[in-house]
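Dear colleagues,

For the upcoming journal club I promised to circulate an example of a predicted protein-ligand complex. I picked one with adenosine-5'-triphosphate because it came up in last month's discussion. The inputs are reproduced below in full, followed by the predicted structure.
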Amino acid sequence: MSARQLGSLSGAAIGLVLLGAAGWLLRGAQDGVVFGILGALAGGIAGAALTQRLQARVRDDLEAATRALGALARGERPERLYLAQEDRSGVAGRFNQELTRLSDTLSALQLDRARFQAIIENLQSGVVLLDRRRRVQVVNPAAERIFGVWAPEVVETYHLAITHAYALESALDRVEQGEVLQIERREDGRVLQIDLAPVRGAGGVLLVATDVTEERRLLEVRSQFVANVSHELRTPLTVIGGFAETLLGGGVDEQRRERFLRHINDETKRLTLLVDDLLRLAALESGRERPARAQVPLGEVARAVAERYGESAQARGIQVDVLGEELSVRSDRDRIEGIVISLIDNAVKYTQDDGHIRVETGREDGKVWLRVSDDGPGIPEEDLPRIFERFYRVDRSRQRATGGSGLGLSIARHLALSIGAELNVESTLGKGSTFTLAFSDMAGPKPA
Ligand SMILES: Nc1ncnc2c1ncn2[C@@H]1O[C@H](COP(=O)(O)OP(=O)(O)OP(=O)(O)O)[C@@H](O)[C@H]1O
Ligand SMILES: [Mg+2]
């Protein structure tokens, strides 16, 4: 038998069995029992299928809801929730509404937090937030800098880990009672201003620390300056007043009269110079006048100034040499001249008779410099950093003879700064001093 024949034979056999079964079923239907069995069977199968599909949908819906909540928890905006089942109760709609509301609130909070973070991180003042137990909760970068701490190391520790100030304890007691306080601490040459305020509602204390060392120093410098100016003005005024009074009193012979008038004249000149210097300094400090920019031949300026002092130097046997390369810089001639005058004036003034002064120009590492050296008395090391301060003089008693006010180098340094140059000093007591004016690259040094 071929395979085809075998196939049709088995097909016929299955057909017969099915017909037989149908006949049996029809017969069975007549007594109603079979239908009952069939109904139960069909119902069971359909029920199982339906439950499975329902379970799958519920699982899908739960997963979708979990995903949405997960996104929310991560701070992301979740996708809308679509239920696999028909949303008869409107739960998905409400869920979506709530999600939108929550995620809007979350975004607003995140924005507020980012703003708060940006403000606190960029504040120049140190901000430290303490909780009710005075433990550190927040430390911004400025507070890390001011107190020399690292935030991860001090957060959650007692405030003393940062402030090291036992004195703060009593202040904190008062602030916790609702007071707002400001205290000042001085340590290691620094002045810290600490503002303390209670954190209303949440409890704890907000501590804002500001390093006011520079402000305090400037205040001190200013009052010192006023005192110095008054002192410098009073001396010549006393002299002038004294002579004028004597002259007014009469009975002064012609010779003394002339001497007194000369004194008055000299002191008036001194006063005028002093006031001019002060005005010059004020103008320089305010930065009102912009420096000129032109080619300035340094050697030429040095020679001109040295010549001006030639006579007085010669009278005391002081030799002034000007040497070095012919260099020029793009800068302000008047200001450079002002600096060189101040340096040569000092060198001549402070160098003993028969001394030597050298004015030299040169170039090094792309920088052009002008140097004024002398073999005079030199300056004590402890005074060196201060000689550029206004009114600072090394030897006040000696100064009476030289007549300076102590403003020369201060003006010279301001002049140097205003043209982007540096003015520095090196000196050895008993050997001499060297002042160097160096033009930075920005000043545009150019060979002549
Ligand atoms: N070449 C120098 N040798 C020794 N001491 C110097 C020299 N240059 C400056 N000093 C010291 O530095 C101080 C400050 O100098 P500065 O030029 O500012 O003031 P001054 O010469 O006293 O007065 P002014 O220049 O206003 O007339 C001087 O009083 C002096 O003690
Ligand atoms: Mg001087």
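Two points we might discuss: The chain is about 55% helix and 20% strand. The chain has four domains: 12-122, 123-211, 216-286, 294-447.

See you all on Thursday,
B. R.
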